[in-house]
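User: My instructor asked us to take a sequence, write out its structure as tokens, and then describe one feature of it. I'm not sure where to start. Here is the sequence I was given:
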Amino acid sequence: MSSLRAFSIRATISVATWSLTILLFAFPGAAQSNSSDYIFVLGSGFLCDPGDSSTCPATAKANPGDSYELSGAGTFNAQNKSVKAAGTYTHKSLNGIVLETGVWLATELVSFDSYGAAPGALRHKGLALGPDPFDPKLLPMFRGPMPTGGLAVFRVRFLPISGAPTTAVLQANCALGKVPPERQMEGIRLSLERNSTEFSEEVSGRVMFLSTRPEVNAPANRPQQEPAPESGRPPSSQE
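Assistant: Let's start with the prediction itself. The structure tokens for your sequence are:
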């Protein structure tokens, strides 16, 4: 591969990483300024625990065989199927040898099945929201997007540093809310379209969807009380 292409891929990865950083620390702005229904975070940002390698990146494995490790973030609209998401990936052999690395881009939202909102899920799962001196209680995200479980299916494009681009179908499962029995395992699955290879074992990694338009049940309005009778006015007689 030419040095120009290698530089272009590295530049794309840098831009994707920078965009990811902005997205992860600007949830309130994202919720107010874009038309997307959900923020999508995959094995990156506040989902990562420095002391737990099983949180990031998200890893899918063929049984037995190679594995793919993915990290990234983005937004999508479940109604019109629009999506803007990107990240980095690493393809490894069964022995852990790196076979390919590069950036992935989501090109299509195939489907999204929501399991419902899960208020308090971030605190309940003890997720690391940032290194000190950040205080989770001070982060504005808790006043905005709502953690939501679900299964999203994306069509993605892999752009390797070396080699030809490939396409795949990515399934990302967030086990929050009312999770179906067959979807209790959080993580990703991957299907390569070039050779129909299935990476159907969720090895590790956290997935999170955050609804930017959470449904809030407003308290019922109390019925207005009738004004009290004027002073000196006799109450109406009952028949």
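For the description part of your assignment, you could build on this observation: The chain is about 15% helix and 40% strand. Try explaining in your own words what that tells you about the chain.
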